[in-house]
Amino acid sequence: MTTKDLVLEMITKYPSLRDSDNKLTANIWNKELKLKKLDINTMSASDLLSLVANDKLSSPVSIKRHRAKFQEVNASLRGNKYKERQTNAQEQWKRKLKEKGLYDKINDNFVQDEIQLD
Question: Quick one: how far is CA 42 from the chain centroid?
Answer without folding.
Answer: 29
